[in-house]
User: Which sequence fits this backbone?
């Protein structure tokens, strides 16, 4: 009887220690960065796409949701600007002052997605637009997602120290699809091309396509830079969906 009491006491102490430990971890870690979640009809679990916005802010990622939902993907849209007071004016700090912090926040969000009962944790993908293309490249290069797509992404930004995602890549990187336009006026092809070549020399799983008739923000009807291109918008989505399907785990 005495031994049983001792055993129960030890068991209760262990439970209490575990509870305190978990509480401390929870308190130490901040909440995940703000994000919205979208799901197709049905119970799932669905493959998930982390859709990453441009330097014009969170509102620009909304256009990405419909195409992926229609194709059976859940979509998470993190706002990686809001917490750090970032905007178009100080966007360069994305790759300098806040680079390491944003890396950790996106990794944390993927962990949140993995335990979402409507998400299949084996099939995680990312798509990024302009600024977001940098982060989509990071997530694939460092193996946090099955595959990523960078649409008119940041590859070369000489006014920053770290705005070169080619540095993330290695022979062990997961697949990336880099889509760019040769009429770019923001991320000009003459600067971007050497960086894509550098990344592809490090990773044989990197694929790229240069659209002859596209500039920056080809999927944005209201954007003033370079202009909307309906044909390239459709082609880029179709190519991305095909690429993700090729890298889906059954």
Assistant:
């Amino acid at each position: 009887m005495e031994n049983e009491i001792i055993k129960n006491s030890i068991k209760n102490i262990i439970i209490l220690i575990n509870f305190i430990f978990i509480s401390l971890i929870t308190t130490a870690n901040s909440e995940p960065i703000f994000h919205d979640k979208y799901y197709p009809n049905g119970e799932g679990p669905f493959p998930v796409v982390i859709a990453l916005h441009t330097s014009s802010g969170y509102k620009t990622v909304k256009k990405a949701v419909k195409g992926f939902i229609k194709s059976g993907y859940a979509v998470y849209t993190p706002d990686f600007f809001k917490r750090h007071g970032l905007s178009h004016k100080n966007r360069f700090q994305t790759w300098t002052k806040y680079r390491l912090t944003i890396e950790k926040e996106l990794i944390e969000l993927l962990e949140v997605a993995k335990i979402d009962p409507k998400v299949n944790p084996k099939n995680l993908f990312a798509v990024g637009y302009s600024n977001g293309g940098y982060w989509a490249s990071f997530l694939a290069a460092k193996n946090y997602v099955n595959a990523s797509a960078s649409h008119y992404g940041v590859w070369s930004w000489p006014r920053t120290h770290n705005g070169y995602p080619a540095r993330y890549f290695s022979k062990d990187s997961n697949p990336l699809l880099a889509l760019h336009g040769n009429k770019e006026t923001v991320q000009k092809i003459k600067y971007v091309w050497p960086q894509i070549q550098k990344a592809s020399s490090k990773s044989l799983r990197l694929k790229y396509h240069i659209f002859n008739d596209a500039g920056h923000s080809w999927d944005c009807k209201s954007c003033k830079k370079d202009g909307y291109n309906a044909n390239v918008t459709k082609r880029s989505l179709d190519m991305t969906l095909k690429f993700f399907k090729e890298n889906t785990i059954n």
Summary: DSSP finds six helices and seven strands in the chain.
